[in-house]
Every structure is written in structure tokens, then in C-alpha cells.
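YM 10:42: Glycosyl hydrolase family 25 sequence, as discussed on the call
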Amino acid sequence: MKKRLGSFFLVFAMLMTLFLPAYADTYTTDFMISSTFAQMKKGDTMQLRVYSGTTEVTQVTWASSNPAVVQVNSTGTVTALAIGQATVTATSASGATVSCSVSCSVNVGIPGIDVSQHRGVIDWPKVKAAGIQFAIIRTGYGNENWAKQTDTQFENNYKGATANGIAVGAYHYSYATNVTMAAQEAEMCLSVLKGRPLQYPVVFDVEDKVHNSLSADQMGQIVNAFCSRIQQAGYKTAVYSYVNFYNARLTSPLVAQYDTWIAHWGVSQPNFNRPYTMWQYAAQSIPGVNGLCDVNYSYYDYAGTAAQQPTKPTDPNVFTSSALSSYSFTDQSPDYFYRITTADAVAPTAVSSDPNVAEVKFSQQSADGYIFHVIHKGEGQATITTTSAVTGASVSFTVTGNALPKVVYFTDLGSSFTLQKGQTYSLRVMPTVISGNVKFLIGNPAVLTGGTVQSTSGGWYYPITASGSGTTPIYAQVGGRAPVLVATVTVS
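YM 10:58: structure's back
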């Protein structure tokens, strides 16, 4: 009996030796984890499981690469403790010598949204209650007409978000195709911010089709022109675009020096191999916001740092200008803005050596000084000089004006027409040259009143109402041009 038992155990041991390696190999290739990527908020928990085929494997050892960010217990329960990234690994001993590991990448971020006037009036208490912790709010777009291109909801959004304890940043949508335009967009953005404190960056949004033909070097110069001016004003900056554009045209070292806000929707994580601090991952329904809203995660606690806010210089002798040493107007940019940085409590004075070439006007006070507006009037060259009313210090630069092409306007009712008293009509106006933003002027407002201009292909629609009796001209003015007669209207 003992011999038989001994033989049996010997045969059994030999069989185990033969089959164990095959078992181990099968086990390693069939070892899976329930999730390979997870996006979490601080305080969230998640359960991970490991399988071999369809069978759950419970005899595993769990570990986190960054326990300060993510902890995992002995049963695979993951807890997000702080903002950051970590890898959670499950390891199982398969057989005597083979070790099997699978892992899950975990990002712990701060949930936020970005909004503009397109979302209408936002119910910010509902947004806060939904768990949103930051909002990036649009200041405006481009720079051709500051008044018309400022986001109409910026004021309301800033007040609503801050009143409800939501950290705020800002973004400006760019149409800049050169450094001068980018610098002007920065000035416009700062004029909208008016020195307000921000917790999150001021972001340069570069994604428009006008940028598609520009090289990486050109885009680097454009980004740097905007962001460096924003930094000079005292704000932190970042650059926003979608993955493909970033990988193709935002590769310059001039871009890499600023924080990255990457957009990539419909993926578990961005297909982007450079560092980024924010990720726009989808558009979703958010309580309190009309329509679908862009949603984001921030992987840097901007709100945990000191708020950014421009301040006036403390040195009374500081009197500097943001203007270029020389600037040439184009038909597409009849306006130029520059900022005087100074501690002066009184606005400086600015004059043009030739108002027929360029006119200069005070625009507004800024957090760190004053902004002036130069308007293209005609051909030639002029010197713009700005002088401190306190110290007498002055700075100057030159502007060059081009001959303004003659513009003829046509309407869908001809050069003269008649309306009945009380009648309203949306007049279509088509110019021979389109450049800048149009302003319509009515010679006799007692006869005719005008409404809000709307752009259309090849011109504009101008709503008019026959409010009185008589005849009046309608003029159009674009940029620095003199008003031009559009039509004569008789109201009967």
C-alpha cells in the first residue's frame, strides 16, 4: 500500500510539473482589469476588479503609484484624495514563478465649464449646486470693433460666478493672423477685464480657420504677442486649441512656455503627449445653463494660488506705452489702440500731428493706466504724442495712413424710395468695398428711425421705421471714412 501511494504522488508531481507552465502562460495573457482609465473628482471612489477570462480574480495585490493623489485598498476600491495623476496596479502571482500585472490610469481633476453669450443668461446658483468649481468666461472675439465684439454676457457671467463661489478665468477668441493683431486682441481683452481679479488664467483661444494657413513659427509669434501682454498686465495665461491644431501648428517653444488647455472630445484621455493643465472633454447638459455646455477638468489648482489682478505701478516716474514705434493702417484695420502704463491719477493728454491722417481719443481707464484710440482718417503720416499731466513725461509713435478707397452703397430699394408713415422695413445695403464695421446715420431722426445693424453676405440689413413725415437722407460710415450717402427716403 505504501509503495502504491508513493508511486501515485510521484506521478501526480510529474503531471503538475508538466501542466503548471502551460497554466501560467494562459493566465498571463488572459489577465484583465475592469477599467484602464478613470476620470475622478476629489473625494470620489471607484471599484476596480480583475478577471481571468470571465472569472474574477480576487487574490491580487493592489498598489498606487501616487498614494497622495489616489489610494487603493486591498479589495480594489480606489479613492481620489487630491488633484493629479496616478496609476493603480493589480498584481497576481500565477503559478510558482510568473507574475501578472494590469493597471488603470487615474486622473483626478477639478470640474469646470467655459461659457459665452451663446449660452444666454446663466443661473449660477444651479451651476454651483451641480458641482462646477470653475468657469472660463469669454471676454470677446477679434479686435476690429471693441464695443460690438465684447461678449454681451461677460459682466453678468463674471458677477454670477464669483457671487456663487465659482473660481473664474477668461478667454478671448482670436482672429489674429499677425503679431500686431494679436497684441490688439490682448489690449481689447484687458479692456473688458478692467483689472478684475481672476483665479484661473486668461486664455488665448486659437482655433479659427484663419489660422489654418499659418506656420508653426507664425503661430508661435502670434501666441507670444497676446500672452506676453497679458502676463505684463499681471495675469496668468494659457493657450487653448483642439488636439490636431496643437499637434500641427502650436509646436513652437514660444507656445510651450504657456499653460495648455487641450480640447479632445469622445476619448477617455487626450491623444496628446505634452503636458496640459486643463482638458475640455465634451459638451454636456449642465443645470442652470441653456443648451449644451463645454465641460472641462483642470489638473492644476489655480484657485489654490493667489488671485491675479493688474495694479498700477508704484513708481511715479513710470510712463510707458504699449504702442509700436510705428504702425501702418490697413483698410481692414481702421482702428488702433494703445495703453499708457502709469501711476498718474489724472489721464494723460494725447494729440495727433495731423488729424487728417489719424485722430486720437481717450478710450478708458485701465487697472494699470489709460487706453487711447487712434482712428484712421486718410493718407499720410502722423505722430501720436501722449503726455503725462502730472510729470510732463511723454511718449510718441508714428502712424501711416493709406488712401481710403471710394465706397458706393446700393440698396434693395434703390437710391431713393418712399415709405408709408408707421411702416417698418429691413433695408439691405450692399457696398462696393467692405472694410470695418458700418455705422448708419439718419439726417432727420424725426422722419426716420433706425434699428440694430445685422451683417449678411455682401453687406448689412438696417431696420428702419417711418416715424414722421418728410424726406431724409441715410448715410453710411465705415472706420475713419467720411459718411457716404446711401439713399434718400420720403415718408408720406
